[in-house]
Structures are given as C-alpha cells and as structure tokens.
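step: validate -> pass
step: tokenize input -> pass
step: predict -> running
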Amino acid sequence: MTIQDFGAIGEIVGGIAVIATLIYLAIQVKQSNVSTHRNMYAQAATTISGFWLTLAKQPDLYRNFTTALRDPDSLAPHERDQGFLVMDSYLSLMESYYLHNIEYGEEISQQRWGRMLRRMLSLPGGRRYWSERRASFHDEFAAYIDETALGDEPSRRSADLRAP
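step: predict -> pass
step: emit ->
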C-alpha cells in the first residue's frame, strides 16, 4: 500500500466519522428539544394549576369570576371588571400555551384546554368577555377561539360551571 492509499482510507474514515458525529449530534439535539418541551409543558401546567389555586383561595375574587361568566349584569361594574381581569389572565396563559402547542404539535393537550375554554366562553359572560376583548389577543389564538371554543352551540352542561 502506498501513502496515497493510506490517505484515501484516512479520508474515507474521516468522512464516516463526520457523518457519525452529525447523526449523534442530531439525536442529542432532538432529545434536548423533547426534554425542553416537556419541561415547558410541566411549567405551563404548574402555572395554570397555581392560577386556579390562587383563585380558589380568594372567595370574593372567585365569586366575581364565576358570576361574571354566568351573569355579568348581576355584578357591580367593578366586580364584573375584576371577573373579566381574571379571564384576561387566564386567557393570556392559554394564549401562550396555545402558541407553544402549535409550534410543537401538541394536539392532545390542546384539545383538553380547548374543552375548558369552550366551557367558559359558552357562558353568557364568557361570550360577552370575548366579544369585548377579542382584539387584545394574537390573531392566530383569536381565530382558534372563534373556531374551536365558540364554533359549536353551547352545551347545557357548561351552564353549571364548577372548578375548572
């Protein structure tokens, strides 16, 4: 074997090593993305759970929120506004979660949150809230709400709003 043969073999081995390294790196990046996505999902779920827990610990706020959804006209304006501010916070969380799910293709978990949103927004105050504040949300999320959460006739079961 000549030195040129050894050089050619070295180039082939080097090329294979580069390809193997690229494959390894691609696998590592994919695993890292999956791990990051799972962490973001867990963080979102924890944030949403914390939101509901905080609301449950404040009876007056919870009452204003649920009444604002069921019968907003029965509240004083400042109470209705307080209930709608809770909806602002919740829908802002849902908007972030939705945009994240769209990026990562999490359709199953998005279906769950869609059902919760449909339940809230199908109530009289939920419909009123959305008609008054739709413009403050990202266009893609607003379209999702319009199609998914408001697209069907409201269910009779949604009138009995329990803890989400």
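step: describe -> The chain has one domain: 41-159.
step: cleanup -> pass
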